[in-house]
Every structure is written in structure tokens, then in C-alpha cells.
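Attaching the record inline, Q. Sequence:
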Amino acid sequence: MENRKCEWVGSECGHHATYTFYKAVKYFTKPPEGGAKENQNQKATTSAKEGWRVLSLGQFFFVKIWAGSDLLSVAELQLLWEDKTTGQMMGSVRLYFLPEYTTDGRQPHHGEDELVAVAEKS
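Structure, as predicted:
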């Protein structure tokens, strides 16, 4: 595993130039640091949060957009690939925000629980 915290899951599903595409990735998570354990029940809960997790194409998950900010977005995993020349693992996501966190803000036509997809690519 070359000391990585991510690994591909399953076999390759396609190639283009130097890119190899995959359907899933697994990553290692650690529990948040700094929290004092109040009792042994909490210790069991904390250790259960540590370990390997798998993300597959089409799955949704929460993303913290900026360090130091509490703003969360919902991300949909759309593409996973590796550049064979550099060994770099990459992914592409589509981001969804609450309307009040967009430039237009919440409008009367937005539903109470509606999320707005970011359409621009950068």
C-alpha cells in the first residue's frame, strides 16, 4: 500500500491515455483528536468510527469546503481515476449547497429542503 491512506476497490474499469478509471475507493479514517473520553461506552463508539470506508461512484457525502469554516456541502462522487505517469489518485465530485449559500440566495421557488447543484467547472 505504499503508506497511502486511500486504495482502489475492485479492478480497473477503463483507460484513456495515461488515465486508469475505477468505480470505488477506500480510505482510512481516524476519530477526531482532542476529545476526552468520558466513559468506556464512548471509547467503544470512538473506535468504531476508525477504519476503512468505501466510496463508490454515485454516492453522496458531506464535504467541508474551506478549512476553518463550518460551511458544509453535499458532494456526489462522479469519477475516479489515477494518472499512471505520476501515480496521483484523483476524483471528481458535483457539489450541492443550500440556496442561501449561493450568489442568488434562497428564492421563493426553492423548497424547504432543496439543494442547488453547482453548475460551473473549474
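The beta strands are 6-9, 14-16, 19-22, 24-29, 51-56, 60-64, 72-83, 88-97, 116-117. The first helix runs from residue 40 to 48.

More tomorrow.
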